[in-house]
Amino acid sequence: MAKILDRILLLIYSLCVGVLSILAILLMTGSYTLTLNKEQGHTLLISSIVVASVLVLLSIRFFYISVRRERHTQSSIDQRTEYGDIQISVDTIENLSYKAASRVRGVKEVKTRIKIAESGLEIMIRAVVDGESSIPVMTEEVQKQVHDYVEEITGIPVAYVSVYIANLVHSPVIKSRVE
Predict the structure, then answer these.
(1) 90-121: per-residue pLDDT in tens?
(2) b/e string for 49-85 if b means 16 or more Cβ within 10 A?
(3) Dihedral sign, CA of 24, 25, 30, 32?
(4) CB–CB of 125/86 below 8 Å?
């Protein structure tokens, strides 16, 4: 939601700066002259102050967005032992999940995704299978293998493993020739 709001604000900001730049160029080149009476000049001054204030606030917001660090992307899981700190990258856990899921008979292609939650790791497996084995039995085996293997190797609790069977492997059809 915040990203959509920031994009809308950036659009408004860009349009305002663009219009003000064109107006400034026209006024400086003499292509457009501005004649105002005292009341119109006062209204223009107040409007200019309001617009300038909004543009300064938006500039500060966009500057903050450009220099802040993303907190929600966690590239490693940190653990503390009696001997020191351990950091295990999310890529390592994805590769361990891939390795465990690939070992299950009938699984041909695997993609993994890891989410870190308070209750432990949430592992999502996307697989393509051969279609010769029972899918419920195979997916249960994938879940068990991935869960046990990742917990054993990393020592990090696995909250759940979800498996999505995307498709079946298409084997090439061999046509026999009769001569």
Answers:
(1) 999 999 999 999 999 989 899 999 998 888 89
(2) eeeeeeeeebeeeeeeeeeeeeeeeeeebeeeeeeee
(3) negative
(4) no
The DSSP output letter for 83 is T
| 77, 156 contact by CB (below 8 A) | yes
Q: Is this prediction's pTM over 0.70?
A: no
Q: What is the identity of the amino acid at 23?
A: L
pLDDT in tens, 52-82: 888 888 888 888 887 876 655 557 888 888 8
C-alpha atoms less than 13 angstroms from C-alpha of 77 in its C-beta half-sphere: 19
Q: Where are the alpha helices (DSSP H) in the chain?
A: 2-29, 38-67, 90-102, 135-154
Read off the tokens for 44: 């223009």
Q: What span, in angstroms and rounded, lies between the C-alpha atoms of 63 and 156?
A: 38
